[in-house]
Amino acid sequence: MAYPAQGQSQEQQQGDEIGSYNWSKQQSGFDSMAAPQATTPLPQQQGSGGGALGGAAPGTAIGAVGGAIAGNAGKGAAIRYTPSKYGVWLMKRLLMTALSFALLSSPTLAQDSDWTIGSRTLPAPAGASDALREAIASTPQPDVARHIRQTTYTTREEWVESIRAVDAGNARSAEALTERWKISIVEEKIAGLTVRTVTPVDIDPANKDRLFVHVHGGAYVLGAGRAGLPEAILIANWAKIPVMSIDYRMPPEHPFPAAVDDVAAVWKSLLGDRPAKSMALGGTSAGGGLTLASTLRFMELRLETPGALWAGTPWADLTKTGDSHFTNEGIDRMLVSYHGLLEGAAKLYADGRDLKTPLISPVYGEFKGFPPTYLVTGTRDLFLSDTVRVHRKMRVAGVVADLNVYEGVSHGDYAVVVDSPELQQAYGELGVFLLKHLQ
């Protein structure tokens, strides 16, 4: 596998505002998941790539890693990078769980789809859907050492530069999904914070007066502005419910407890207009962790809790604790390893506080009295243990908790392949769960 060269200058065009950031668009943009290059595009296999090093796999929804938007994907335009921009590109590949999405054709199985993990051979999962298996088969094996080296940021400027670039691609991906499903988005202020209400064309009659309150993922650093909307759009479309996404504050400017405080402020305001049990709260990855932490905060403040929670592969423990952090390192094609970007983001978010503080790592909190919770993970997920530990702790506390584990799914993979059974089932069954538990 050839890797992109580094040390090249970047051509830029006019600024584009993404959330509270201003960034400069690359001449070729982030509209292709082709790897960044010095002067010429990397060779592109027909239908190859996956979310890893190389082109985007056709048929995939590409997450915080940015990527191809309908009409632009697969063009193989070269992207010129400075050394730190290589890290931006790899970050875009690794954090698909901020969930921006490409709308492409079906994938083609790569000829050499097996990975070698030590002395073991890991084939693409035969028990997964054809769409997911082919996307995995076309993903080159992750390189753990390179991942750690290229996603370890040491200065605030490196973080800000990377965040801006990734969020820009995610915002454009949200626009593509909006156009695909004819979603309407209305922006307003609640408790001084920007929220965006995503309304699908088809709302289940039972959900006419209900609301899903969404908190986006992205390792607590990604997803500002419309970059945080792709999963909200998925939930609105597949669960057939209006979704309000909170544009909460994030590091490096606003570390913990800003995000928890923001969600609590919006929730308290909503309680003045709606019954608590008519609303759900949820998100994927950091969004799932923030959902759990915010609910702990609601209980501390003696606020009524939601009627249901969605915790998709929640980042419930910001320390490297749990079997899957070790067994799935180098196997999770999205996150790859705790070390590098995740470890850095955890420290940036906690801002010197103990990572095991329950409002930072909610698995260490008390779940007694929690609302019914719908959890999703996969057998290749780095956060499989986070999800399982949350589920076990909830069940011991007497909480209704529905755990769904998908074969072959890496972190957030259920939201990556747009037309796959895994995506349709994960969000479609979330819709059924909400119909059952919301009032």
Structure report:
The protein has 439 residues and is α/β, with parallel strands linked by helices. It has a domain at 182-437: Alpha/Beta hydrolase fold, catalytic domain (Rossmann fold, 3-Layer(aba) Sandwich), CATH 3.40.50. Helices cover 31% and strands 15% of the residues. It is built from 11 helices and 12 strands. The chain has helices at residues 83-94, 130-137, 144-150, 156-181, 230-239, 258-270, 286-300, 324-327, 341-350, 384-396, 421-437; strands spanning 12-18, 21-26, 115-117, 120-122, 184-190, 193-199, 211-214, 243-246, 279-284, 308-312, 373-378, 401-406. The strands form 3 sheets. Strands 5-6-8-7-9-10-11-12 form an 8-stranded mixed β-sheet, sandwiched between helices. A two-stranded antiparallel sheet has the order 1-2. It has a two-stranded antiparallel ribbon with strand order 3-4. A hairpin with a 2-residue loop joins β3 and β4 (120-122). α1 crosses α4, α4 packs parallel to α5 and α5 packs across α11 (421-437). The longest helix is centred in the middle third of the chain and has 26 residues, at 156-181. The radius of gyration is 20 Å and the shape is globular. The model is unreliable at 1-90 and 92-111 (pLDDT under 50).
Brief account:
The protein contains eleven helices and twelve strands.
What is the chains' assembly state?
Answer: single chain
Order of helices and strands: EEHEEHHHEEEHEHEHEHHEHEH
Q: State the CATH architecture of one domain.
A: 3-Layer(aba) Sandwich
The CATH class of one domain turns out to be Alpha Beta
Largest sheet: 8 strands, mixed
CATH topology of one domain: Rossmann fold
Assign the CATH superfamily of one domain. Answer: Alpha/Beta hydrolase fold, catalytic domain
- Kindly state the percentage of residues in helix: 25-40%
Distance between the termini: 53 Å
Q: Estimate the mean pLDDT confidence.
A: 80
